[in-house]
Amino acid sequence: MYITLDGVSRQYDSVWAVDRVTMGIGKSEFVSLLGPSGSGKTTLLRIIAGLEKPTTGRVLIDGEDVTDLPPHRRGVAMVFQEFLLFPHRTVFENLAFPLRMLKLPAAEITERVAWVVGILSLGGLEKRYPNQLSGGQQQRVALGRGLVGRPKALLLDEPLANLDRELRQEMEVEIRRHQSALGIPFIYVTHNQEEALSMSDRIAVVRKGRIEDFAARTDIYDRPKTAFIAQFVGRSNRFEGTVGAGGRSVATRCGTTLALPAPLDPARAVQLFIKNEKLRLAPADGTDASHGANRLACTVKDVILRGAYADYILAFGDRELNASRPRSERAFLSGEAVIAHLNPEDIDLYDTDGERPS
Predict the structure, then answer these.
(1) Which residues, in sequence order, are CB contacts of 287 under 8 Å at separation 6+?
(2) Phi and psi dihedrals of 98, rounded to 5?
(3) Contact criterion met (CB below 8 Å) for 163 and 139
(4) Structure pTM?
(5) Cα–Cα distance between 79 and 146 in angstroms, integer?
(6) Backbone angles phi, psi at 283, to 5 degrees
(7) Residue 272: enclosing H or E segment and its boundaries?
(8) Hey, which of 106, 216, 326, 357 has its CA 20 to 30 A from 225?
């Protein structure tokens, strides 16, 4: 592993903001630290950068223990949520500033700035000032200022949070492309699951200072390790209940019985999650019998269009369910009676403590 955190913790007074984190990041990996506000992900990033010193544990970069080294001697760069561009300096001067602090020769500064301008498509903007740039252009300059020193790793702390949705999605693609071309690790802090899923090779889900799971993005989404991840990543319907006498179904608190993908010990209290897109809909008149077990009689309360998809809010007894279906499928209208189908294989099942049953 190119970057290693070995039992890293950070305590503030009586609070452990980071609690015994051990993880390794490969030399060309894009890793996201994903978690809610206050989970410790930014503190973890600042420890890697050297802006915070761990209370316990070590940080290693390229085999070197850098725990006690200051930020400027670690060979990493950091891009913050705020662009932090000098308003009175041109694009060229903003990009050149960190190199001038290193007292590099003028010719090398010019060469490195030209390299960053080329890879970030900033050509023709070198003489402009930040207030003459769009939000996306300002973000590219901030990214370029991090890359111009040719760091061993780039650390990004929610750099797209201040951009509108369309521009943020464009920048997600750009950042991913640049990381792949540069071949250095990017460590990206975000609370936005869409950003993490679109860009990352692996995602570390951070909760209360600990790593809930650190796995490939597809595993984080498709096979969430804990109930917290199932609820935090993606949009899901949640049920609680008790395993029935035969061990193959759960009697839920909302009065329905759901078949399980595999047998469990009877009388066991469990919680179930079904992602919105796994909830299939069919007319209540029975004309579509192609779906299997776990049939729930519902009424469409509302339909929300989301481009190629439609989100259905369903009334099921005294609670609501949510389904997300392609608009290429049969459309349903508000007030229409439908059957929601849950395939047992699509259920993510956890004990009451949030862990998968052993």
Answers:
(1) none
(2) -65, -30
(3) yes
(4) 0.92
(5) 6
(6) -60, 145
(7) strand 269-275
(8) 326
Per-position DSSP letters for 87-105, written without gaps between them = TTS-HHHHHHHHHHHTT--
In angstroms, rounded to a whole number, what is the distance separating the alpha carbons of residues 86 and 274? 48
Q: How far apart are CA 95 and CA 138, in angstroms?
A: 11
pLDDT tens for the 358 residues of the chain, in order: 999 999 999 999 999 999 999 999 999 999 999 999 999 999 999 999 999 999 999 999 999 999 999 998 999 999 988 888 999 999 999 999 999 988 999 999 999 999 999 988 899 999 999 999 998 899 899 999 999 999 999 999 998 888 888 888 888 998 998 899 899 999 999 999 999 999 999 999 999 999 999 999 999 999 999 999 999 999 999 999 999 999 999 999 988 899 998 899 999 999 999 999 999 999 998 766 555 678 999 999 999 999 999 999 999 999 999 999 999 999 999 999 999 999 999 999 999 999 999 8
Q: How many CB atoms lie within 10 A of CB 27?
A: 13
Parallel, antiparallel, or unpaired: how do β-strands 295-306 and 236-243 relate? unpaired
Query: Running DSSP on this structure, what letter comes out for residue 288?
Result: -
Running DSSP on this structure, what letter comes out for residue 355?
A: B
Q: Report residue 287: phi and psi, to 5°.
A: -70, -20
Q: How far apart are CA 320 and CA 304, in angstroms?
A: 15
Q: What is the 3-state secondary structure (H, E, C) of 273-287?
A: EEEHHHCEEEECCCC
C-alpha to C-alpha distance for 133 and 272, rounded to whole angstroms: 48
From the list 342, 329, 274, 273, the residue with the least C-alpha distance to 303 is 329
Q: Do strands 56-61 and 295-306 pair parallel, antiparallel, or not at all (unpaired)? A: unpaired
CB-based contacts of 320, cutoff 8 Å, min separation 6: 301, 313, 314
DSSP letters spanning 114-138: HHHHHHTT-TT-TT--GGGS-HHHH
- Taking the C-alpha atoms of residue 50 and residue 70, their distance in angstroms, rounded to an integer, is 6
Half-sphere exposure of 58 (CA within 13 A, CB side): 9
